[in-house]
Amino acid sequence: MAERGLWIAGAVALLVAAVFLGLGLRGNLAFVLELRALRLLGLVQVGVAVAVATVLLQTVTANRILTPSVMGLDALYVLGQTLLVFTLGGIGYASIDARLRFACGLLVMIGMALVVFLPLLRRRLSLTLLLLTGAVLGILFRSLTALVARLIDPNEFAVVQGASYANFSAVPPALLLPGLLLITAGVGVAWAWRHRLDVMSLGPDAAVSLGIDWIPAVTAVLGLVVVLVAASTALVGPVAFLGLLVVALAERLTGTRRHAVLLPAAALIGVAVLVGGQATLQHGFGGASTLGVIVEFAGGLLFLVLLAGGRRA
Amino acid sequence: MIEIEGVSFAHRGTPVLRDVTVSLPKGGLTALIGPNGAGKSTLLSLVARLQPLQSGRIAVDGMPVDRTPGRLLARSLTIMRQDTGPVGRLTVRELVGFGRFPHSRGRQTAEDHRHIDASLERFDLGDLAARGLDTLSGGQRQRAFVAMAFCQGTDYLLLDEPLNNLDPMYGRQMMRHLRDVVDGGQRTVVIVLHDINYAAAYADRILAMKDGRILADGTPAEVLTPDRLEALFGYRMEVREFEGRVHVLHHGP
């Protein structure tokens, strides 16, 4: 069942990508295809990064209804961008190189993870407490963002809004390459750790007993989550429930939590959901709605179903 | 040999272990008994490096547990805790296979599969191998976790109340399995037990703990005397000998 599920996910992802590239081609083929290929590349990166980050976070926390946004990571990214607009002004913000902005955002997130989460881990606080801290920090960051947004010029607020809502149709082209490198590296590391992650999903005691040094291992995995979330947030903005939706679907489809299967399956489904959703929006609804809204809606609904069903929550 | 030297441990200011010094030579089945809160589980978890040492020294076959790499220790020592944690969608065979992780790092060889088969058979899990852990009864699941610990192939097996939730039949079966493990190879089993009579029937040696100290240390016949038991548990129990084994009548009025 596991391998078959993986094949199905792969086939769907490929099909969806082909449809996305090929449907309703008109006009200058080379131009349209290049545009669509770049857009596809961005969506694939985000789908893979969010799916893998969610699997990793769920594994180390032994909790199936978590997504990285619960830890306030993407909220921090938005806060950083808002502060940049506040200090530099809308025009100043727009004139910084997108790659530089991306690097700054990434550094801020990793810095916060080091300052806030690492000491908590060192003191062997329970992951529940860690997540609660993350949730509270997330609220703090969102509130601070709202405060700063009230302080700035209304025109510049529009710039902030552009940065704080998921936007799948305008992936900044300058970020495609750095994002690709970062996400490929991160996913590569996660794949290399797949057996170790299987062991970690047994919980700290069993993992230590099987030779995992828990604190360094969890620190490394959370670091990886931060990098992946930062990369995907920089590309399209915060997506809260996408990871939850994708990982739950992947687990349903493959019937396993083994990372050798679950990681690729979740990544493929992530791609299929994003690319498929975007294709449907573009061709079915004429771009009348945004993918972010639909993904959040479906993911939120699933979150409630999981909570109500109490499936190993 | 497990050497524990001058180990004290406090949990949020409350002392749990007070200057414990004891050594457990290789081989044999040692039972830790004592009232709740005596520090038995804490002692075991410190030996298995599940908690950081606060003071004192613990070494397993000469390897200090706080400074030896985890991978290395995982080949000579394993622990099974009473709370076995979330299991997700795992089959019994997959779970037992995790025991080979310290040896194969996840890439299982033919030898690993031999070990897995042998563990499944030893703990009567052959028929359940393909079943999901979430479909098993508590007793079966407990056995699967012990089989995983056994499959790790370590010289030392630490078990924290493995008889929890087991009915008399499964409890007896578990103790017989563990007795076989000790008698069959050069394995050492250290086990926390609540039922004194299981310790009396199956252990080679009993460590009796109270208030973070070791109160008595010896064979079942030496440790399980009415005086010692009263000092340990706070009330008088009769002790009878029956077919060469001591029995503690702790349920009496």
TrEMBL record, chain A:
Compartment(s) of residence: Cell membrane
Keyword set, alphabetical order: Cell membrane, Membrane, Transmembrane, Transmembrane helix, Transport
Bilayer topology term: Multi-pass membrane protein
Highest taxon of the lineage: Bacteria
TM regions (residue ranges): 6-25, 37-57, 77-96, 103-121, 127-152, 173-194, 214-247, 259-279, 285-308
InterPro entries (UniProt xref): ABC_BtuC-like, ABC_transptr_permease_BtuC
Family per record: Belongs to the binding-protein-dependent transport system permease family. FecCD subfamily.
Protein name per the record: Iron chelate uptake ABC transporter family permease subunit
TrEMBL record, chain B:
InterPro entries with a match to the protein in the record: AAA+_ATPase, ABC_transporter-like_ATP-bd, ABC_transporter-like_CS, P-loop_NTPase, Siderophore_ABC-ATPase
One Gene Ontology molecular-function label: ATP binding
Location of the ABC transporter domain: 2-236
Keywords: ATP-binding, Cell membrane, Ion transport, Iron, Iron transport, Membrane, Nucleotide-binding, Transport
Pfam family, one: ABC_tran
Topology class, membrane: Peripheral membrane protein
Protein location: Cell membrane
PROSITE patterns cross-referenced by the UniProt entry: ABC_TRANSPORTER_1 (PS00211), ABC_TRANSPORTER_2 (PS50893)
Ion transport keyword on record: yes
Keyword DNA damage among record annotations: no
Protein known as: ATP-binding cassette domain-containing protein
Source organism (scientific name): Azospirillum oleiclasticum
Species classification: Bacteria, Pseudomonadati, Pseudomonadota, Alphaproteobacteria, Rhodospirillales
